[in-house]
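Action item from last week, closing it out:
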Amino acid sequence: MYQAAMRMGMDLDADYFQELEKIKKELLVRKFLENYLLTKDAQVTEEEALDFYEKNKDTFIVPKTEIHALHILVSTIERANLVVKRIRAGEPFEQVAKEMSEDYRQHGRIDLGYFNRDDVVNDVAKKVFSYRVGSVTRPIKSDFGFHIFKILDRRERGTFKTFEEVKDKIYARLRAGKKKQAYRNLVSELREKIAVKKNESLLSKVASDSGAPRRTHN
């Protein structure tokens, strides 16, 4: 199609040149902004992030009761019972998971982080949320197989998420804010320069019309 268009001389069309110039300007402006913003300091200190966290804690409230758990998934009750037996005998949960969990084998996942009842199937939620912190559950059956959990923590609705949990989002938000402010400063600076240039042109025209000597720059 490109060659056909060239043979038809469409690259010489006035509309083509006009559109091409428009695209070039847009690309140049984008490149200029990217280079400009890269030179601006958008680093966020831990002090700034912690300050934001403390001042905006209300946005990091836990909306529903959650638990933090490790997880093992196996396909048969025999394997599930063996998992529980090994853990209760003192083997580390993570080590048993690496050797026996299908979830780990397929997704490399052991630590589920925090989750609420809506994040897991109902039959599993009813049972796993009944265990205390520090407990290793008995095998819990679902359509996916048999689950064994180790409950690491529990937090109630209305408590606050920790800084460690939300710090990546805070850093990203603050960096974006600094870049946005740098962009605003650039626009303001360019507008001032344009305004000065326009004013100088106007003064020059007025001086010329009145016969007064023009302002010169040394």
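Closing note: Confidence is low (pLDDT under 50) at residues 210-218.
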